[in-house]
Write the structure tokens for this entry.
Amino acid sequence: MVDRKDLINMALDMRSRSYVPYSHFAVGAALLCRDGKVFPGCNIENSSFGATNCAERTAFFSAVADGEKKFSAIAIVGGPEGKAPSALCPPCGICRQIMLEFCSDDFEVILAKNPDDYQVFQLSELIPVSFGPGDLGK
Ligand code: THU
């Protein structure tokens, strides 16, 4: 069974795959599905800047493309390329909205510097008073 420390280690490994020629800020993510599978992600930047994809979205889109739609947790790590993270890397607003699309309020967002230094948040804490799939048609 995959635990939080495993997820953090997978996210840390993914930072080496980040494509970050503009910000030099490498982010890794590891998304745990309810069936136990893990989908990793890294940030992929673009010369247009706006077309940049965050590590979290890379992980979600790859999981959904593989047929997964039920998730229990994500570990996120980030910081200057080539250095160990020295601060937590909270997900951006767009990534929080993507989480909201597929995850319940108790989805765990694990923000880590390393496997021994992390904080766990519930999605509902990170995006309160949200607009999600259940609000359409009300
Ligand atoms: N980034 C992520 O991948 N995830 C986050 O949670 C925050 C920001 C990326 C986007 C961009 O490539 C770089 O970090 C700097 O913003």
Notes: The mean pLDDT is 98. The pocket of tetrahydrodeoxyuridine is lined by residues 20, 23, 25, 27, 43, 45, 52, 54-56, 76, 78, 89, 91-92, 95 (CB under 6 Å). Helices lie at 4-14, 55-65, 93-102, 123-126.
